Amino acid sequence: MKKKLIIIAGILIVVLVAVFFFMQKDSTTIESRASLQERNIIVEFRLTGEVIPRNRIEIKPPFAGRIENILVNEGDEVKKGQVLVLMSSNERASMIDAARAVSDKEYERWQTIYKETPISAPMNGFVILRDKEAGQTVGVSDAILAMADNLIIDASVDETDLKYIKIGQKLKARLDAYPDEQFDAVVEHIAYEATVVSNVTVYTIRIRPVSPPKNLRSGMTASIDVEIDNKENVPAIPSDFINTVGADHSVLVLADKKEKPQKQDKGADKRPPVQVIKTKNGDVMARKVEIGITDGKWTEIVSGLSKADTVVIVRAKKEAQQGAAPMGRGR
């Protein structure tokens, strides 16, 4: 009797082990596949900036009086010394009005004797604001016009990214108002003093458009792409096959040759290597794959994979079934 129990127990153990290995073999399912492809990978980050005048000057009258004429409009380019506004002092305005009331001849005579005062442009540039009109009375603190020499982009860079910014560096920029129109720009200045914004240390940089678009306006929001690295025709796989490595996902390679897992050296690169599993007839073993740069969509594979390999993402079957939508009655 005792011998029979031992035999039965042995059979049960064998059956349980077989069931266990069968369940282990069928416990995963391939979710997606990919292979090495040659790709151009550009690594960059994006800054947000504001279009501002490099130098903004308000045109104010030297005395209180009346605006007789404004000779420019917003957007007009002007030269230094060009007459922008004709002004009358309060005294002249009173005298001219009195002469006009007498007769046209008297008015013309006093216009010749008592000339209007011209206000000239202090620099080369263009008019960005016309805030007053002819006939209005203004004081010395009232801005009639505002002008700028040219428009630049003012942006803030996190101190951790400042190492990627250089004077004279070429960038690509676009206006949020016109996202499909990209234009070239150059880094013109990097601030020497930092500011703290929301507990983050940032440095202000000034970016000059190489060929300013016609629709560039002061106050617009601009996006600037800063290139960190650029490689052409490098072997790569979709980044999803790397980002999903974890407890519930694995990165696999289907191959005919088994390889033993390679342990990661403690002194190796700070970025953990991709652990790739090579499989044959259900047997899986891991190996290390060295990765390079990534643009978020594609990741460079430096070594460890060949074009003959197929990379797959495997998910546990139970989890895949839980993620599926339950079947119900139709309405």
Classify the helix fraction into a percent range.
Answer: 10-25%
How many E strands? 21
- Taken as a percent bin, the fraction of beta residues is over 45%
What is the fold named in CATH at topology level of the largest domain? conserved putative lor/sdh protein from methanococcus maripaludis s2 fold
- The ordered string of helix (H) and strand (E) elements is HEEEEEEHHEEEEEEEEEEHEEEEEH
Give the oligomeric state of the chains in this entry, treating copies of one chain as homo and distinct chains as hetero.
single chain
Structural class by SSE content: alpha+beta
Strand order of the largest sheet: 2-11-15-13-12-16
- Given the C-alpha coordinates, what overall shape results? rod-shaped
Distance between the termini: 62 Å
What's the mean pLDDT score?
79
Instruction: Tally the helices.
Output: 5
Biggest beta sheet attributes:
6 strands, antiparallel, barrel
Can you put this structure into words, describing what you see?
The chain is an alpha+beta fold. The protein is built from five helices and 21 strands. It folds into three domains: 27-39 and 233-321, conserved putative lor/sdh protein from methanococcus maripaludis s2 fold (Beta Barrel), CATH 2.40.420; 44-53 and 150-232, Efflux pump adaptor protein, beta barrel domain (Elongation Factor Tu (Ef-tu), domain 3), CATH 2.40.30; 63-147, Beta Barrel (OB fold (Dihydrolipoamide Acetyltransferase, E2P)), CATH 2.40.50. It has a six-stranded antiparallel barrel with strand order 2-11-15-13-12-16. It has a four-stranded antiparallel β-sheet with strand order 3-10-8-5, with no helix packed on it. A four-stranded antiparallel β-sheet has the order 7-6-4-9. Helix 2 (90-102) packs antiparallel against helix 3.
